[in-house]
Amino acid sequence: MFYRLSGVHHTRYETARQIWPVPTDRRVVYILLALALAAPLYLPDLYLSSYVLPWLVWSAAALSLTLLMGIAGQLHFGFAAVMAIGAYSSIHLARAGVPFELALIGAGVITAVIGTLFGAAALRVKGLYLVMATLAMQYLVDWVIINVPAISGGAQATLNTPEVSFLFMPLSGTGLYYGALLWAVIVTVFVLNIKRTSFGRALVAIRDKDYAAAVIGVNPFKYKLLAFFTASFLGGISGAVLAFCYYQAVTPEQFGFNVSIQLVAMVLVGGLGSVIGAYLGAGFVLLAPMFLTNAVAYLAVWGVLPLSSSLLAHIPLMVYGLLIVGFILFEPLGLAKIYDNIRKYFLVWPFRHTQS
Description:
The chain is mostly helical and 356 residues long. Helices cover 72% and strands 2% of the residues. The longest helix has 28 residues, at 220-247.
């Protein structure tokens, strides 16, 4: 079989410490990357712009939150506000004539500074108290965006994104998809490698027990602030990419509290602290309601579900909720754990007794 550890011998620490030490894992990544690059050639524009593109952007946002919640262990229920700051900042910077590349970085820095100010509450409180601090950020940012016309134009206003170019190429058409793909790849590579650094190991130590981390020389004050700064920076740029590549116009309703809950659901359903779990969780939370709604509508047209229209509208939400409860009951570690179980099965198949 192609998925085997036999014959894989590591004679150097560099090869043993690779992100994907199993050759088949690397081949799978290369195949997925090739399919992603060639997606505009075999996918209709509707599916590319309505399903794949938003999935990539929200996966990058979920990875940003994974860094904070899964690796650093700091709860955040106001991450939609972080993305809103990045989206509005990038639009205003681009309108002021700042090149789009610098506008993205500027939006990330502005978001990181504001996010760190609210994240400073993590230095004094934990758990539900920290959740309340991040909720305060969500509602305060919502209020400022709605009530300060200089930012959003008003409560009911829509702020259109200006025409920009990225790396001297117009950001339009297929370029929107490749822009989202590039950002998703950058965030993925960053989060994959962060656990291999002293910064990532310090965050994991703080997540497991901050008092013990302080005893062995890890400064919780410093690394918690750095975790909020880094996650807010990535989240701010994700919000900017979402605004320019997908929405192309932003309103206050697009970054409400319900969006923060969806982001937390992406991280939890996918698998806390898992990179592939962020992609699986974002796909489930974002795409599952769409597919369920289409399936119910199809069955209703064929008369399989002879129910009232109001009940038909709620069936997808009911099924969606049942699926989330099912994941929590039968696999609390999320979709990433299901993938890992399948992978380990093929690693030792047909010798199941060798599994530890």
